[in-house]
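Dear colleague,

Thank you for sharing your sequence with our group. We've completed the structure prediction you requested, and as agreed, I am returning the results in plain text so they can be pasted directly into your records. Please verify that the sequence below matches your submission; if there's any discrepancy, let me know and we will rerun it promptly.
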Amino acid sequence: MRVLLGLSILLTLGACTSLPNRDPLVVDVAGIESLPGEGMEIRLQVALRIQNPNDVPVEYSGTALDLDLNGRRAASGVSDATGSVPRYGETVIYVPVTISAFNMVNQLFGIMNTESTDQISYRVRGKLEGGLFNTRRFSDEGNFALAVPAQAR
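Please find the predicted structure tokens below.
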């Protein structure tokens, strides 16, 4: 019994070391555009620039995306688009996301309770679906400034 356990551990470790050493994808939010919505929801299309710093292309068959603003969940979306990010290359993919009425109210209360409203922090988390061992998760975060008219200062 111990011999079988030891052998299975060695085989598992050997299988793990044979997996390719891949660098993580670099994902940046390239743009956000509005889309027609239903009722009280807001629909946006998020453009993601995905860079592949690896020697093999990354094939994908779907994308999922979550967007947080100021530490609060704001939007989520999915896309069934398929494609490939070339080796040592980049591509832009588009994911439609929805902000529900509840999340809009949550964001408004959050903005009203913050001391500084000139900076918005964001965090994007998602995945490129690539099958059993090729799904690639990604995240990006940062801040952007809200433009304040000169007369309002």
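Summary note from our side: The CA atoms of residues 127 and 137 lie 4 Å apart.

Kind regards,
the structure core
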